[in-house]
């Protein structure tokens, strides 16, 4: 009976460890998803075209077509999408355009299209 209790305790410890591992994995996925959503929000605010966004998404899905061994496919797709979105030129042009805006508005002869 004592041996059975010890075995049950060991099984429960292993299950608890598996649950903790899954909790950490889900936490990482949640963080990556939040990063992706924030980048999408920034790109939406910059009026990225649906076509450009579609290209980014298709590029991501194409690069994740063959899952890499040892890497969870969902996390791989989210990670790749986050990298693709972060590399978007619009995000890197934004500070320059904002820096140029005040100068162009200060000169009344400059016409903005």
Describe the protein:
The model is unreliable at 96-113 (pLDDT under 50). This protein is mainly α and 113 residues long. The longest helix is centred in the first third of the chain and has 44 residues, at 2-45. The chain contains 4 helices and no strands. The termini are far apart. The chain has a domain at 1-65.
What features would you highlight for this structure?
single chain, 113 residues, mainly alpha, 4 helices, 80% helix, elongated, disordered C terminus
Number of helices: 4
Helix/strand-derived class? mainly alpha
Major beta sheet summary: none
The radius of gyration over CA amounts to 24 Å
Unreliable spans are 96-113
Count of distinct strands:
0
Q: Which shape, going by the Cα principal axes?
A: elongated
Task: Spell out the helices and strands N to C.
Answer: HHHH
What percent of residues are in strands?
A: under 5%
Q: Percent helix among the residues? A: over 70%
Secondary-structure blueprint:
Layout: H1 2-45, H2 50-63, H3 73-86, H4 89-106
Describe the structure concisely.
It comes from Sinosuthora webbiana. This is EFCC1 protein. The chain is mainly α.
